[in-house]
Design goal:
Length: about 400
Amino acid sequence: MNTSIELHPISDGETQESIDRRIDEACEGMHQIYKSGKYPELTVERTWSPHNPVLVGEVSRPNAYRWYLKRELKRLLRKGAKIKIQASRDLVDLNDPKLLEFVDERRADFTKKKLFLFSPERFELSIQRLEHYTGTSAHQFQKYILLTNYSMHMEAFVDRFPNCVQPLRQVQMPAYHHEIDENQGVSIINIGVGPSNAKNLTDHVSVLRPDAMVMVGHCGGIRNHQEIGDFVLASGYMRADHVMDEALPLNVPVAPSSMLNDYLEQALSEHQIKFRLGTVYTTQDRNWELNLKRTLVDLKQSRSLAIDMESATVAANGFRYRVPNATLLCVSDKPLHGQPKLPSEAMEFYRETQKKHVDIAIRALDLVRKDWPEGMPNSSLRSIDEPLMEGSED
């Protein structure tokens, strides 16, 4: 396919209809190139950048995150960029032994600015794994993501959005999607228990470039004055999960999005819910109480007020892949105070909190959508090799 598409900067007086039509045609052109067996290649000329005036990058499965490409192309054209789209090399078969060379992130040159964060091969691999694990298509994922490890939160989501998209078969990490035009809705994914699952899912969902990712889970309360049913917002994390140590060393500070926390606080206040803000300790050991001495030292030194098994992992991968994220936990037990999680008490707690928990998270995301329809600012997540997309200025 020899088709070449050129996008010129937005001119004074150009109508929104004309702009949208040009960008839609460009995105459809990328899709057709991909269908022909080639990677679409974008060349972006940026007259405002003396250090990186021309950047080139390839994409795969452009229809899977078309909403995102449309938004970012429009941003570039507004700034005065010139963009050329054409067919590049043949698609790499995922059964090709050389695939791992293309998806190995350690081979990336972090001294050079990139057009996209992921290689097209990595994008293709992650899309297929995401669809396998969640039982839904990539294009159905919305720009706001909730992560949970409880089926009851999934049920509460369905109660709120009875027409949401659901998997047609049993899968390991089911995803439900409340679809809105331009993927402005909310998706919820049951990632299961533990940091390995949390890393696995966020490795793959990050290629879709969600605008926000919130962990909605339960935790053990550590402080005397916490009560069962209180909520916790993470201001920081003690990373004792260890599955991310090589990818993101422990000396790299990781914190949730302060902006997302502000919206979650507003939603909690509207519901008149008691909560505390502080450090969440994430462990890889579900039975940490059986080896208490080491954990207790960490809990005291980190001033943690809650312990769970996923939050720090989600936050670390969110930071790594530039996805704004936050943690909304509910205290389900207090093992250090003689209130371990036991069947009868747990079931009563679940019945009382499941709807409220999901409602608070969705309310916060509704506020984000209202205030930032074009995506929340994420400059705190950018690095020196930041991709051009997402409004990077350098």
